[in-house]
Amino acid sequence: MYQEKIINPPSGYLTFALSLALLGASIFCFVSGIFIWGGVLLAIDVFLLFPGFLIINPNQSMVLTLFGKYMGTVKADGFFWVNPLTAKRRVSLKANNLNGQQLKVNDKLGNPIEIAAVVVWKVNETAKAVFSVENYMQYVNIQSEAAVRHLANIFPYDHAEGEETSITLKDGAEKVSELLESELNERLSRAGIEVLEARISHLAYAPEIASAMLQRQQATAVIAARKLIVEGAVGMVEMALEKLSQKGIVELDEERKAAMVSNLLVVLCGDRHVQPVVNTGTLYN
């Protein structure tokens, strides 16, 4: 495994001035008819000085190799001159966005889901990025897809019925993002890649079960609402009977209490407006 070696080559301005001087001298020799020296000076300028010039822009680097041997990486921006025989490969140090494609996978419970992630990454160690993998950009794409698939397989999309899972893909966004970022950093460290941020950008049930899951969610919501309504209605009935008993407004036997409770529950728990009936007779007729 290659380790990055930072080098600081000499400035190229002095060499550039020397190159201009040799160019002027070669032109003078050609004009003066000294063609041999003119050709020699021009060859030195073209083949030994010009190929060694190096321009590094901000947030860029240049990996240098000499006859197959890694010489080092230039990360400082500016104008430099290096050995003209070295092979140069430019590597960007800027942050990159990977907008992953939507993947169809099964979650922990076996439900087919669609998932995609956005990954922000950059090259941290140029030697690993260039020499440890064939194509580090393709490596990032494939490993990111593999990490997203693995994450989807170890967590359920949502809480299963009768089961409370600590982390789900739907509700545990922050924790899931942290785990995804950690796994990506582990996978991409071989290529010298650092993941700055990783988040789930798309999450949904697959079309073939989306309708059924929506009905289940709606049924769960209805049951929860009904449960809350019944609890509130029972409390109101209990309070009504207690108030009537305390103030002695009316005395009810057990049968009439049951009828009153039944009527109140129908009124309070019904999902439609009830029609009141006025009893013009006695309480028992």
Question: Key terms for this structure?
Answer:
Band_7/SPFH_dom_sf; alpha+beta; 3 domains; 4-stranded antiparallel sheet; Band_7; Tetrahydropterin Synthase, Chain A; transmembrane; 285 residues; 21% strand
Protein model, in words:
- The chain has 285 residues and is an alpha+beta fold.
- It has three domains: 12-90, no CATH class; 95-207, 2-Layer Sandwich (Tetrahydropterin Synthase, Chain A); 211-269, no CATH class.
- Helices cover 47% and strands 21% of the residues.
- The protein contains seven helices and nine strands, in the order ααββββββββαααβαα.
- It has helices at residues 13-32, 35-49, 126-131, 136-154, 173-188, 207-247, 254-269; strands at residues 53-56, 60-66, 69-74, 78-81, 87-92, 96-99, 103-106, 112-123, 193-205.
- Strands 6, 7, 8 and 9 form a four-stranded antiparallel beta sheet that branches. A three-stranded antiparallel beta sheet has the order 3-2-5. It has a two-stranded antiparallel ribbon with strand order 1-4.
- Strand 7 (103-106) and strand 8 form a beta hairpin.
- Helix 1 packs antiparallel against helix 2.
- It is rod-shaped and about 135 Å long.
- The N and C termini lie far apart (96 Å).
- The mean pLDDT is 84.
